[in-house]
Amino acid sequence: MDTALVIGGTRFIGRHLVDDLLEHGYDVTIFNRGTHDNPFETDDRVSHVAGDRTNDSALEAAAMTVDPDAVFDCVAYHPKDVRAATRIFADCEAYVYVSSGAAYGREEIPKREGETPLESCTAEQATDDSSDTYGNRKAEGDRAVAAAAEQGINAMSVRPPIVYGPHDYTERLDWWIDRVNRFDRVLVPGDGTNVRHRVYVEDVASALRIVAERGEAGEAYNVGDRRLTTLEEMVDLIAAQLDTDVKVVHAGPHELAAGEIELEDFRLYRSYPHVLSTAKLAALGWESTPLEEAMGRAVDDHLESDRDGSEYGPERDAEERVLGILETL
């Protein structure tokens, strides 16, 4: 494969995917509405086709203009988008859909492709735009990929959990980096042993390319850090990259109530462990970036940005009330 069309391509996963594809010799075109800054605007190796991916006519025009070997769908949020794309790009050598670990419908450790059931999806959920139905919609997109494969289309999907790294506009990790960078005491919900699978964004990018090149039609592939860390270990990793020392203070629901905080208010916390098996992807030759290296890049990017995650977690005043009570115990 020589040419690639990235639907999306300017913000986070898509941006890193474009970099990865360029490094591996692809001619790359990005397709999006142009509502976000294009980091490749001055890069003559990357072409841009403007259009709304929810407009089938615009997608069909892009297919005829670019005639890509591989299509990477980074912004398919509704099942109908996947069904349309697999039809429009049916003649391509590979179509890869960015699904999600949230597509799984049963709590298992680990969650495995083809074994752990997916979320169901009603007609109402399929057209909803709320976060409550995100996993349902992604699961139905996976089923659309499988249906396309049954029609002879080389369609596949990749399921990442929480993605982190440079240019992460969700600021989920930035909240924690900011806390470790600015304070001596970091409040960690629960006992610190919570496990929620995460994945470095460049590893998602390489996974998408590898699945396009080596994956099997109709298959889904989990992608995630090959070494998992607890929430407290993640804080320690951040502190090591910042070359600082912090005191981790644990707080359960009763202590957090003093600051009117709940466990789930902390980004990256999840009451039940969320773990994906990545053996299937690794069997294709994919490898993950060492955690220290990945976190180092994430921290460096945070320090160079104006992101602090302050809108996405408990306020420090509320945390201080909890910390004050814990120190008197």
TrEMBL record:
Indicate the segments annotated as coiled coil, or none if absent.
none
Q: Where is this region: Disordered?
A: 108-139
Q: Where is the signal peptide?
A: none
Please, which domain of life does this record's source organism belong to?
Answer: Archaea
Q: Where is the NAD-dependent epimerase/dehydratase domain?
A: 4-224
Q: What's the protein name?
A: NAD-dependent epimerase/dehydratase family protein
Q: Can you name the source organism? A: Natronorubrum aibiense
